[in-house]
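Researcher: I'd like a structural prediction for the single chain below. Treat it as a standalone chain; there are no partners to consider.
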Amino acid sequence: MRNFLLFITVIGAMLLAACGGNDETAVDSTVETNEEQATGDPATENETGTETEGGEEAAPAEEEVSEVVVDDANVTITYQGTTTQEDEIFGQTASIKFQVVNKLGNSIEVQSRELSTDNVMVDETLIAYSETVAAGKTANTSLEISEYEGYDFPTFNENIELTLIVMNGDTWETIAEYPVSISIK
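Model: Treating it as a single chain, here is the predicted structure.
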């Protein structure tokens, strides 16, 4: 029954993300970033250094984030940033992005437990994350947090802490549990 509810939650989160608005903002973290420097006429560059047509101010580009949070014989998991969106109908959503590299000879299932942001626990009702990664493959995944009435939507100002669970995709036996802590600037 719990797997069925998780499946419904994941599908609902995908539908919410697909119907969401374009008000996406990135949450910066204290990891290495790749910043491109704009080259061109200084008269057409804005304060963020991004070139615009006709000297108009453009929104700053989302910073690329890449922090390896797990690396062992089983998997490599890289945190790739957090974005939040606001939608008039569906409310706020947040996506915590990971890249998962399966180093094993069988498929794995990656899930999360005990998620907190800014040292406050996030209710599991708001979270959708269960990703299957085939043997020897890489998956770009997204842990989704959706706003629901009656639950507090988290803030992303200081840190994100969670436990990532890696399970055998065939037997559902736990292979390993990884406590992860990510600092946000």
